[in-house]
Amino acid sequence: MKEHPAENINFVGSPDSIPATELFPDLVTNPHGGYLKGIRYREDLTQVQLAEATGIPRRHISEMENGKRVIGKERAQKLAAALHIDYRMLL
């Protein structure tokens, strides 16, 4: 009998589960940049598209996603408007 893919899913707290921070170390060192990148992916936007929608240079978006530039309140508000989120999630 063929094994169903769902039978291989490990749930949080199970002996075989791996902490998210182990898989994605940026969740510890750069949570806001990781969140920005994840929401951008969710909205199916490239960095160029997000830059065009916000007026923030694409290079700055990349730097924010990678923890090399602080997002700041003004940029957070512009990003949040384009990504349909509360700007405080980026601060």
Query: How is the main sheet built?
Result: none
Strand pairing plus helix content: what structural class? mainly alpha
Overall outline: elongated
Helix-strand pattern, N to C? HHHHHH
Number of strands: 0
Spans where pLDDT lies below 50 across 5 or more residues: none
Helix proportion: 40-55%
Which strand-content bin applies to the residues? under 5%
**What is the C-alpha radius of gyration, as a whole number of Å?**
17 Å
Task: Give the N-terminus to C-terminus distance in angstroms.
Answer: 50 Å
Mean pLDDT: 86
Tally of helical runs: 6
Give structural notes:
- By secondary structure, the protein is mostly helical.
- It has six helices and no strands.
- It has helices at 20-23, 26-29, 31-42, 47-54, 58-65, 73-83.
- Helix 4 crosses helix 5 (58-65).
- The longest helix is centred in the middle third of the chain and has 12 residues, at 31-42.
- The chain is elongated and about 45 Å long.
- The mean pLDDT is 86.
Question: Which tags fit this structure?
Answer:
52% helix, single chain, 91 residues, mainly alpha, 0% strand
